[in-house]
Amino acid sequence: MNINLILAPIRGDRLLNLENPTLIDLSLDIYTGMPYYPGDPQPSVEQYRHVSVDGVSLKRLALGTHSGTHIDAPAHFIANGKTIDKLHPLAACGYAKTIDVSGSLSTRMVVTDGDITRRSEDVLLVYTSYYAMRERAQSGVFPTLSKRFAEGLVEAGYKCVGIDSPTVGDPEVHKTLLGSGIIIVENLSNRLVEVVSKKAYFICLPIRVMDGDGAPARALAIM
């Protein structure tokens, strides 16, 4: 894809240094033993061919459509919803507002409040600090959005929401967002903290999986 197509909306933005931009990679590494959502396929990366034997190195990847940093397509929860290959390539791209809710999670690790006031931003990124503490990242307890919070995003008119957690919420939260056309990005890395309260352009491009309910993706913030 032509990079100019991605950067066109921000070409004239003097608050973003496009001559020497700061790029924050918000993607998780994919490797054998990486964290994965309970019940999902366990990801693995295996050596399939070796330079010393075959003259070439080649690895085999085994992933679910929701492994690592990924995008949820509407088809994940909505009957006859759009699949990942039917979404516009830039469906999860746009100016982003990043909020820090790490200090205001409820005892049930639910995000119930936060400044979701929308100005010109299309994307809301939610920093929970989930991956900052490895022991918490292995506990099986994930920060999630409340249904009311999700409804607030719909009312505000966002087109995409991203979170540094394996899941944005329970089925009702997914249905509220995806059913209203809001694309979901899950499993952003802890580097999201570097974007909090800063002006950024968010880029998240999924692998084109035919009829996919989601797909692993590379997520970046340009500042």
TrEMBL record:
According to its UniProt entry, one GO biological process term is: L-tryptophan catabolic process to kynurenine
The record's Pfam families line, in alphabetical order, gives:
Cyclase
Task: Please name the GO terms that the record assigns under molecular function.
Answer: arylformamidase activity
Gene3D superfamilies documented for this protein: Putative cyclase
Name the source's superkingdom.
Answer: Archaea
Query: What protein is this chain from?
Result: Cyclase
Extract the InterPro entries matched here: KFase/CYL, KFase_sf
